[in-house]
Write a structure and sequence with these properties.
By secondary structure, the protein is of the alpha/beta class. Helices cover about 25% and strands about 15% of the residues. The chain is built from four helices and six strands.
Length: about 140
């Protein structure tokens, strides 16, 4: 089976989907995408163990993303503070993490066409539902 680096190196792909990445793996992947001048504009990083370190590195170093899926990474509000650096981002799926209303409000200030925050913790508040901004759904993974 090909590694992510081999896939990026051999093909001009625009969409990359992987699971179970940690911060170090994401940082290495982003560095490789930059080195190879990747054209990836849609990234799915579901079910990983990402934290502020990986999210911050991605957000500040790879601004080509149009679509990002960070579902099921157990992310908290302070770990997503740098996502607004992704100024080209139009679609964000961040389902089933640990965001509260504070984190959701930060994301709602972005110029997104689609935001899915369903299934996040609200620490005693009403459950957060999917927010759709505009008419375009997130790209299926």
């Amino acid at each position: 089976m090909e590694t992510l680096k081999e896939i990026i190196d051999q093909k001009e792909i625009e969409i990359l989907s992987t699971k179970y990445l940690n911060d170090q793996q994401l940082i290495e992947l982003v560095g490789f995408m930059i080195q190879k001048q990747s054209i990836i504009n849609s990234l799915s990083l579901k079910e990983g163990s990402l934290t502020k370190t990986g999210i911050s590195y991605l957000s500040k170093n790879y601004n080509r993303l149009f679509s990002l899926d960070l579902s099921e990474n157990n992310l908290l509000d302070d770990e997503i503070e740098d996502i607004p650096y992704l100024t080209n981002l139009k679609q964000l799926c961040i389902r089933n993490n640990g965001l509260t209303q504070k984190g959701v409000e930060l994301l709602q200030k972005m110029n997104l066409e689609y935001l899915n925050v369903e299934g996040n913790d609200t620490i005693g508040e009403k459950p957060i539902r999917k927010t759709s901004i505009g008419e375009k759904p997130i790209a299926k993974q």
